[in-house]
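Researcher: Hi, I'm a grad student and pretty new to this. My advisor asked me to get structures for two proteins we've been looking at. I'm not sure of the right format, so I'll just paste the first sequence and hope you can take it from there.
Model: That works fine. Here's the first sequence with its structure tokens right after it:
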Amino acid sequence: MIGRRVTIGMVAGEASGDLLGAHLMAALHAQLPGARFIGIGGPKMQSEGLDVLFPMERLAVRGYAEVLRHYPGLLWMRRQLRRALVEARPQLFIGVDAPDFNLGLEAGLKRAGIPVVHYVSPSIWAWRGGRIGAIARSVDHMLTLFPFEQTLYREAGVPATYVGHPLADMIPEEDQTASTRLQLKIAPERKVIALLPGSRQSELRYMADTFIATAKLLAQRMEQPLFLVPLVSRETREIFEAALYRADAADLPLTILFGHARDALAAADVALVASGTATLEAALLKKPMVIAYKMAGASFQLMRRMGYLPYVGLPNILAGEFVVPELLQHDATPENLAQALLNTLNDTVVRERIPQRFAAIHRQLKCNTAEQAARAVLPLLARTTA
């Protein structure tokens, strides 16, 4: 029997983790109405009652070179957070994604006798070396969003539970194009291209100019296209608008949306998406896409040497093949991206085949994730509160 008043530590490092953490908190609240949550999270976790010890924005650092530059501050914050959590003695700690920060924190908490769950596996399946030994020393249980990850962990002796992906629960399986276009007042016959250059300021600084230059090329080669650009914050909107000014692109048929990434994707015929969770969202909406990504040169070279899989986009990883094009770093030129988008728009076979492949992925990932995750962690809480 779990006591009504338990304390659970949680840390999420960016918007996608904030969403996952908030859904898990809600599911745990349903089982443990008096539970208290402390740690790091964004607005969604805070709305579920998280007591914030440090702002989440300090963790939103992208790429190896950038992490190295911020490393002293991140190390200091992790030490302070570990000290605060050990003093608070939560009955359980749940690290939500952010493995570079959370795994080190989790190792210290586990040594201090606090049970540790990590929610969202690091990409161990994409690395030549692998981090599973370090993960085993850091966590008591792994919650995975993709089915093949559970098998990898269990084979390595790490307790793991596949819980599905919350986006698959949230996004309807039915086509949303017509209803979303009606809501956004977009003519059914118009060609719509969603541009998703990233959710973080650092991503916009690398991607905005390229995405805008791509849109300019498409506007020259298409009849009346409409570009939808969802941006998550005032800061990212300012970065994108500065890039529009540099490109002299004020006359582009382009609408910036404040948030509403799902609406932009649902209304689109095709999307240009920075690699990340947005590619999965596009797949769950059954949308053809081109995946593009740029980062600091040093970060990219480190990634290449560490031996990632041939594909980096989640739709291709889940399919096990190149279902949609990926253009990375120096290959992500406006000319290449524009041509890939036009090829996708003009190929009727591809536009029919891709939704079928993505529908199968959707069915596989739809598992009622938050409840599955809560069910997986409750036995650990029961042991610590017995």
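Researcher: Oh nice, that was easy. Here's the second one.
Model: And its structure:
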Amino acid sequence: MKKTQKIEYKDHLNTFEGVISYDDVTDQKRPVILIAHTFKGQSQFEIDKAIELAKSGYIGFAIDMYGKGKRAENAEDARKLMHELTEDRPLLLKRMELVLKIAKALKQGDENRIGAIGFCFGGKCILDLEDLEQNYWD
């Protein structure tokens, strides 16, 4: 049976709210796929991707890069949210490091099999993480 749930994770200043989706019928460890959102913030689009990945045997993890409840209503707001991280790439990287740490700790997940996809701004997030984890992704 597919299960979808919100998970909270924190850094020293912020609380984030991700969504994971997986099949809870088996205890077998599954690969985790991080899903990084567009510049508008986490939305149903990314959550739907997590659900679809769960149907294929993965754990879909729709990540949150902005913080719990921080979502854009329009393009201007989205640019402001994104700007904070594009102008402070070390902060963006710290948030991606946090997401990776959370993904590796998921009890249903296989910490040695983690992949990622990103949309728009999310692609930048994944590429920054790839720079950090060059050997990890190979």
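Researcher: Is there anything I should tell my advisor about the second?
Model: You could mention this: The first strand starts at residue 2 and ends at 10.
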